[in-house]
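The instructor's notes for this session suggest beginning with a concrete chain rather than abstract definitions. Hand out the sequence below and ask the class to guess, before any prediction is shown, which regions might be ordered.
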Amino acid sequence: MSSNNIDIIGTLQNLKDQGFNVKNSASEKTDNSLDWKSQNIIIKLNTNTNIGMIIDDGTGMDMEGLVHAMKLNGRSQESNDKQGKYGIGLPQSLVVDTQLNGTAQIISKPRDKNDIYSIKIDFQKCVKNREYITVATEASSSQERMFNDNSIQNYGTIIIEEYEKSKMNELVAFIKSCDVSKSLLYEFGYKYADQLKIGKKIQFWINDDPFDVIPVDPLCMDNIANTDKQVVQCDVYSLGLERRVFYKKKGILGYNEKPGKRVKFTKSDIPEDWVKDGSFIIESAYSSNWDRLQKDIIANIEEDDQYAESHEDDVDDDDEPIKKVHERSKFMGGRYYNRNLKCIDKVSIEQPTVGNKDRYKYVTDSRHRVKFPVELDVPFDIQVNKSRIREENICPKIFITIIQISNDFVSKMYKLYRQNNDSDSDSVPDPETIVPETINPEAINPEAINPEAINPEAINPEVINPETINPETINPETIFPETIIPDTIIPETIFQETIVPKAIVPETINPKTIFQETINPKTIFQDTIVPETILQDTIVPETILSDTIVPETIVPETINPETIVPETINPETIIPKAIIPETINPETIVPETIVPNAIVPDTIVPDTIVPDTIVPDTIVPDTIVPDTIVPVVIRDIGPSKHTTISVNSGLQLITKADESVLDTLLFMYFDKCAKDQIQCMLDALNGKITEKRNILIRMIESRYMGNIETDFLGGAELIRYISKSA
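After discussion, reveal the predicted structure:
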């Protein structure tokens, strides 16, 4: 079949130049595969041959279907079961990929037939002969072999294209991109999230490397609290050329109109003579830190780990990591438009420039999604390639409703979080009127609690029911020691995340109120221990767990030798890595408490041995193990830069290294991080040799996983340093 009734060269050239890029092209072919009921879609790219293949396990096409798919104007009836409508997408995607310099062929086998069919377009010949020929035939033997070798099932469709080299490189770069704003994996993740969630699978292959597309919900509706999201259904009705969008606002049915500059919500039932055109849904969600909610998605794409708080008032926009978080959050936010089961476009939400400045962040930190069916294609002004929405062309009544519902949600979030933080303490109810059984912990919003509005004198401990306490709603700054009743403490309700060490005031702790039977060792978390708050009389040896001890929190001056009970020391609980020589006070060592069996030879650091503290009577000859004397083994196999030592020896020498050597080694072991990021960390730890050494040791242990006899990265640097020192 020939399309001689149109200007072929002009049409093809327009298809190539009208802003349809390789990402749109890949999306268009994916749409077609989904329209063909595919469960699996594989896009293979060979950068050596510049051949691309799109393989699916859909229903397949016969010869008539192939011809229709390749028509330049093969319009079809719109349907909520597919994306296609205008019949120009597939030919346009092939034109963009080949740039009219290569061939494209489709090989397909219908699910209900045994024959394989094909169609082939040579775009160079089309331009030369000024003809666009679409003729389908039965597949040749070579095409049959190609289908059988590459098909997912014994049916489906394969599209083979000769990519123009620059377009192949461009598409590969988008797939491999570590920038969310450019990543095709992220774009496909949110575009096809609904399809992926119901079991469809989309996968890219670049040569022999696979890249899976995982579903992305930009609104994180499954993880957002109910108080921070909403879903509103809108029904579009018309009478002649007039339209109204009806929805419920605070339980009242009505519609928006704009008689002047302000939008007015008019209460109204739906008139009987009006016709329903269709319905759409507006989803909204708010978060002050979207990066935290989407950290797994970001980590899957980006190489950095910048999940910083991005909305502090004192943020310096010149700080590159924070600036990147701002830019990423802005890109991932906005209004998303979903048609059928695909997100066809998203529009950024710019920060307001007028009005209440305190409200600005709630505008940009709120995200919205509009879901509509094909019945509303006309009022939503769907573009030809179904990948764009122009908000200025949307039916004004519909767009006013979208904006008004979005603004109402923003106002609700602003009142919930910002204005509640300014509430007057006089609004706190009388504690005698509070009935514990009526309190629903899930209804308490921790971020809405203002500590300054709480009057500790108004709290009556007797009305507190421990079972109604939700740990996630506890703000440590609102805890007052004098209101704590030990009998009401339930260890299982104590969560590490809710404990803030700085909130513990030693002077307010009464040892007499601590009961041993109420202490649950499993609820003791090492990073919440404040040494100054430990009272000797309250220590119960049986409750001490070795894995809760943090060496940095041990203050020698607070240790009373008389409180050490030798019988309670379990040698197996001693962690050699947890011993820091700087924290050992020789005066606190009591010979009677030394258990020879508990001495682990590889934990002995010579620099920490103080001759005055050695008691001959405590030396047990049987505990001396000659094999524990580990000399530094140097294997010199050439020039100094090739000198190697074992990991075990390297760990020993690190204890003698100065800060400059530690910095050099940290650069080596953080080889997957950017140098400016490493330098930023080193600057923050400048002068803190012990912390740098501990970080380095953890990196070494993580790299070698206990294999202490292998060659140590950085051994030559250590040997040069030791040699100079000697």
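Then share the key points. Residues 481 and 510 are 9 Å apart (CA to CA). The two ends are 88 Å apart (CA to CA).
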